[in-house]
UniProtKB/TrEMBL annotation:
Taxonomic classification: Bacteria, Thermotogati, Deinococcota, Deinococci, Thermales
Name of the protein: ABC transporter ATP-binding protein
Pfam families (alphabetical): ABC_tran
PANTHER family per UniProt: HIGH-AFFINITY BRANCHED-CHAIN AMINO ACID TRANSPORT ATP-BINDING PROTEIN LIVF
Species for this entry: Thermus brockianus
Record keywords: Amino-acid transport, ATP-binding, Nucleotide-binding, Transport
One MF term in the entry's GO annotations: ATP binding
Keyword Transport part of the UniProt annotation: yes
Hydrolase in keyword set: no
Gene3D superfamilies found in the cross-reference section: P-loop containing nucleotide triphosphate hydrolases
């Protein structure tokens, strides 16, 4: 369904964010893209969604293909029409509009009947949104805003859903709820899912395969089980407690300041 080949992305012509990234997402598959801050995860999401120009970025080399078509330089509207929907980090809602109005905006391409059916489905899936449907979206909790974004994404009728850092800033219970929702949507709707996350443990619970990104390059590729069994991944990306990255970092930090 999605193929990325040797993608290089630069900002302002000089800052290299992605350096030859290749990955694929197959039909009906859930794939996690893991990595620390600054690894290039959000840059990849922007490239997939056609949003790089809005951030003074561009594709320097490589190709993105979606449903067999080269989409490297397509605009976000065309990509959405093809069925690629990206839920960006930071929860970019219309904060001064209500959840009801946000959903109407997201489903603007639907007929009135399709929009009503879609909104009924969203409110049935997220009852809390129905209760707060007439309040300003900016006053919703982080978890409620994330649910609203997923509801808006559903109204675009996606075939591939790219979700960037859905657990960011959420309590552990809400993280689990969001991941369960993504997993349910994938199976019930037959979606393909690219999940971009720092919370590797939460992501690995619902995906089939994993890519790990570091400094703009893919440093690991494998299925979820292989990622859990790989010592480097466990230590440096999942924070394994016995010999993990957190302990090593604390040790180095003390040595640096002594």
């Amino acid at each position: 369904m999605l193929s990325v080949e040797n993608l290089k992305v630069v900002y302002r012509g000089v800052i290299l964010a992605l350096d030859g990234v290749s990955l694929e997402v197959r039909e009906g598959e859930a794939v996690a893209l893991l990595g620390p801050n600054g690894a290039g995860k959000s840059s990849l999401v922007r490239a997939l969604a056609g949003l790089l120009p809005k951030f003074e970025g561009r594709v320097l080399d490589g190709h993105i293909c979606f449903l067999g078509q080269d989409t490297t330089h397509l605009d976000p509207v065309r990509l959405s029409q093809m069925g690629l929907t990206a839920v960006l980090e930071g929860r970019p809602l219309f904060r001064y509009l209500t959840p009801l109005e946000n959903l109407v905006a997201a489903g603007h391409r639907l007929s009135p009947r399709e929009l009503k059916e879609g909104m009924d489905e969203v409110f049935a899936r997220f009852p809390r949104l129905f209760e707060r449907r007439h309040e300003q979206a900016g006053y919703l909790s982080g978890g409620e805003q994330q649910m609203l974004l997923l509801g808006m994404a559903l109204l675009t009728r996606p075939r591939l859903l790219v979700v960037d850092e859905p657990s960011l800033g959420l309590a552990p219970k809400l993280v689990e709820e969001v991941m369960q929702t993504l997993n349910a949507l994938r199976h019930e709707k037959g979606l393909s899912l690219l999940l971009v996350e720092q919370n590797a443990r939460a992501a690995l619970a619902i995906v089939d395969r994993v890519y790990v990104l570091e400094r703009g390059r893919v440093v690991f590729e494998g299925d979820a089980k292989a990622a859990m069994e790989d010592q480097d991944v466990m230590e440096f990306y999942l924070g394994k407690e016995e010999v993990g990255f957190r302990q090593a970092r604390r040790y180095r930090r003390r040595k640096r300041w002594v």
